[in-house]
Amino acid sequence: MKQSRLMSLVESVANVMVGYGVAVMTQILIFPIFGLHTTLAQNLKMGAIFTVVSIARSFALRRVFEAIRMRSAK
């Protein structure tokens, strides 16, 4: 069964939302080890930027693989 574009986007967003929390926590824990000192607000903003990029990347890859799957099914 073919996955719709909307469901591809929903899946990507759900995946990245969980990743956002993991990313922010990782930044908070790891940045000080490398001498980077940021506020919580800065970490949240950086996480948001990476989240938008991740959603776009995940959605694009999902559509590419769906197109490959559909071509091979013909």
Automatic annotation (TrEMBL):
The keyword Transmembrane is annotated on this UniProt entry: yes
Pfam families noted in UniProt: DUF7220 (PF23858)
Keywords for the protein's UniProt record, in alphabetical order: Membrane, Transmembrane, Transmembrane helix
Domain of life the protein comes from: Bacteria
InterPro entries assigned: DUF7220 (IPR055644)
Record-annotated membrane-spanning stretches: 12-34, 46-65
Name of the protein in question: Uncharacterized protein
Organism: Paracoccus marinaquae
Lineage, highest ranks first: Bacteria, Pseudomonadati, Pseudomonadota, Alphaproteobacteria, Rhodobacterales
